[in-house]
Structures are given as structure tokens and as C-alpha cells.
Amino acid sequence: MTTRRNFLLQSTLGVAGSTVVPGRLLMNLQEANPSNDRLKIGVSREIITPKLGGLFMGYGSNKPSTAVHDDLTVTAIAIASGKTCALLMSATVCLIGNDLTGKIRSLCGAAAGVPADNVILAATHTHSGPITTDNIDALYCDEIFVPGCVAAAKAAVSEMKHAKVGMATTKSLVGINRRQLLANNKVILGQNPWGAYDSEMTVISFRGDDGKSFANIVHCTAHCTASGINTEVTRDWAGVMIDRLEQESGAITMFINGMEGDVAPRMANGGSTGDINHAMEVGAVAALDAVRAYKDIREYRDEELSAATEDIKIPHAPLIPLDEARSELAKLEAGTQARFTGSTIRVLKKNIELHEKGETGDSFFTYRQTLLKIGSIVLIPVPFEASSEISLRFRTYSKYGHTLPLGCTNGSNSYLPSQDQLCRGGYEVERFKWSGERQLADNADMHLVNENLKLMEKFS
Questions:
Q1: 130 DSSP assignment
Q2: I need a labelling partner for 65 at 20 to 30 A (CA). Which of 117, 130, 190, 362 fits?
């Protein structure tokens, strides 16, 4: 059994087990920033490590956890300037289901005095953590995860202070496209060196009037699956990166994954998964990149926070023809065809139900979206495991200098590949087609990009 390791900087950051809340707890963010346009930042962290013996999310593994390699955490950054306030949260879990996301955003918003729409909740996507969507680990969520999120939200506003913002980017090879194409034109999970990959790592640092950094955000892109199918609780490679930058900067560091839907950690074994040693190796590479970017920050500026909110609509595909849906369902129920059986049956039954009622169902998949802008930085929550090419398009088409799509954020709605991937199939495409009650349109990626670009116009 691996010895438990806790990498939190207890002496430097003042956190040990659960976050220390110094002084009086402010009632909300408006009280924290009364009639003051200067940006104020507060940061906090809670440990959300599960009890041993629970199942992990990812790979369909039924192996219970047997040890803690490093603690899982939820980190919260409260942000306010003028009358605008927001709460940015990152939890080191795999995915957070839509209902659970809504609950946490509502509770944390109420605890921090922030509109629920302005609570941004991201999952880093480690596969070596508890189940927080689908067959959810309710006991873990009720006793550890949700209370930890609320505690972090409260503590983040406890002693907010004026902050200036610094930022730098670097090229990182922590990830690689994982849609490996074989000679027979079959796509498998592996490594595809010529596939799309967003190699830009961004480090954002918040520095107080004393000239010291006290909070960081790292944004880069890769599945946290380097540990593979193991029985140790771990944040995977991202944990190594977080800890190293915290040691270097003395600031609590939040990691938010990018559009990692088709991006694996770049490992020497040539695959998309490995073991705990691979996670440490990938993490060491990411750590060097993050520290390099942090040290390359040349200027810290006063910036303002803005938020823009509206509904995003992505069209559904037409219903599957009734005869085809019935035929496919019969094959699955007879056990003669295996293809994500449970979710596929759910999709087919929904299509058949709508046909039999003479209905077409909702024309669009609709979700509530909030974009945050801090100076020239725009944060775009994306409630999908979206393909990396979509991130590159966001960055190319946006008029803002630093546009960061946040993957696995504010919900979990399976994969969203770019349209050009659909013809070749593969894991991400199959999940895209068969994970929801309705299939999205083939050009869902275009609508996702354009709807968010349109919302950005509210910042003008």
C-alpha cells in the first residue's frame, strides 16, 4: 500500500486539512468590496479526499480505492470589482453531474453572496477519484464533497484583498492528441502526433499590495489519466504541477483543464494511460512549464472583472427514424450488439417514445452560460469534454488577447468532437452520439463557438 502523501504547503499557505479562516467571515462579496472598483481577490482550499473503499470514476473499473497517494482538493477564488462578483472553483474530481453542479453552484453562491450564475465550477478530470456523476457516490457527495465546496466558497471571501493581475503563456507538451489512426482507418485511444492539440499553457497570478503572489490559476490541456487503472486516490499529473508552482510562488494554485476531449497526457509508453509513475513524470514536465510561465510574468496590473450571462443553444439532430431505432434497440436488448449499451438504449427508447407520441422533442440543447472577463482574459465555461481544435478556434476568432475555454465546467454532457472527426468514429464520437437522451447536431461544435462569441459581444 502506498504511503499517503499530502503536498499542501501547510506552513507557507496556512492550510492544513481544512482551510483556516482568519478573522471575521464576511457575509458576502458585496460586503467584501463596497463601492470600490479595484479588483479584490480571496482564495481558499478544502481537502475532499474520499474514505477508502469507494469506487473510482473512469474506465468502468470496479476496483475500490486502497490508498491515498495525494489528497483531492477543491480550490475557490472569489473575485470582485465594483458591483460585479464571481466565484471560480476547481475540484480535483473527474466530472460533476449537471444536477450536482446546480446544487453546488446554488449553495456556494448563497454562502458567498454571489449569484449562482456567476459561480463557475470546474472538474480537473482525474480518473483516480470518486464517482460524482451518473451512478453517483451519494454518501461521498453529501458528507465530503458538497460541504467541502461550500466551506471553500465561504472562506474565499473571508479576507479578500486588493490584487493586481499578472499573466504569461508558454508552450507545453504535457498533452497530445489521443485519436490514433491505424492503417485500416480505425481510430483507437493512443497518441496522434499530427492531431489537433492546444499547446498553450497560461498562468495567471494575483499579487497583493505587498508585492507577494497569493493566488494562481494554471490553464492547460490534457486528460488526467496518466495513472491509469489504479487503486490510489490521486490528482494525477496535475497534482505535481500544482504543488511545484505553489512551492515556487508561495501562492495557492488552481488548475483548470482546457478542451481535453481528445487529448491524452503525453507519455513515453505511447498510450493514453499509464501508472502512477507515468503521472509523476508527466506532472514534472507540466511543473517545469508552469514555473517557467510564472517566472516570465513581467507586469502586474489593476484590472476589472466583467460578467456576461445568457442561454446558449445547440441544436439537436433529427430523431432517429422509428424503424431504425426499434431495430437497433432489439439488437441491444438481445445482446447481439455491444456499444455503450446502457446509454445507447436510453437514447433509442427516448427516440421511440417521441415518435410514438407524435412529438419531435426540444429543438435545442440549452444551458445557462456565464463568461468572465478579467482585463484581456476571458474565461469560457464549457460543460462538455470538447475537442482541442474547438479551443484553437475560440482563440483564433476571439478579439480578446487571452481566451481560455474551461473544459468539464458547469456540468457534464459527455463528449463534443469537432465535426470533421465524426466520419472516422472512435471512442469520443460514439460517446457524443449515445450519451444523452438526444443526439446533438453534427455541427454542434460550430454552434458552441459562435454562441459564445456572440455572448462575448456583451463585453464591448
A1: B
A2: 190
Place of cell 431504425: 324
Q: How many CA atoms lie within 13 A of 369 on its CB side?
A: 26
What are 249-273's pLDDT values in tens digits? 999 999 999 999 999 999 999 999 9
For residue 250, the number of C-alpha atoms closer than 13 Å in the C-beta half-sphere is 8
Q: Are 77 and 173 in contact (CB under 8 A)?
A: no
43: nearest Cα among 172, 215, 239: 215
Taken in order 57, 420, 324, 318, the sign of the CA dihedral is positive
CA-wise closest residue to 249 among 284, 308, 189, 293: 293
**Residue 25 half-sphere exposure, CB side, CA atoms within 13 Å?**
14
| Cα 181 to Cα 424: distance, rounded to the nearest angstrom | 9
Answer for the pair 297, 425: CB distance below 8 angstroms, yes or no.
no
- In b/e form, how buried is each residue of 236-265, taking b as 16+ CB within 10 angstroms? bbbbbbbbbbbebbebbbbbbbbbbbbbbb
Q: With beta carbons less than 8 A apart as the criterion, state whether 390 and 416 touch.
A: yes
CA–CA distance, 59 with 229 (Å, rounded to integer)? 7
Q: Which of 40, 23, 98, 65 is nearest to 384 (CA)?
A: 98
The DSSP secondary-structure symbol of 409 reads B
3-state secondary structure of 228: coil
- pLDDT at 34 (0 to 100): 53
> Rounded CA gap, 432 and 411, in Å?
15
The grid coordinates listed for 354 are 417521441
- Extract the C-alpha cell encoding 20: 483556516
C-alpha 101: how far from chain center = 12
Q: How confident is the model at residue 337 (pLDDT cuts 50, 70, 90)?
A: low
Distance (Å, whole) CA 396 – CA 374:
19
Query: 58: pLDDT confidence band, cut at 50, 70 and 90?
Result: confident
Query: 325: pLDDT confidence band, cut at 50, 70 and 90?
Result: very high
232: which 3 cell numbers?
490510489
Give which of 408, 442, 410 is closest to 423, Cα–Cα: 442
The cell numbers describing 32, all together, are 467584501
Report the run of H or E that residue 287 belongs to, with start and end.
helix 276-295
pLDDT at 241 over 80: yes
Helix or strand holding residue 283 (H, E) = helix 276-295
Q: Which of 369, 339, 408, 387 is nearest to 132 (CA)?
A: 408
- The domain segmentation of the chain, as residue ranges, is 10-304, 307-459
- Bridge partners for 398 per DSSP: none
**125 burial type by CB count under 10 A (0-12 exposed, 13-18 middle, 19+ buried):** buried
Burial class (CB in 10 A: 0-12, 13-18, 19+), 157: buried
pTM of the prediction?
Answer: 0.91
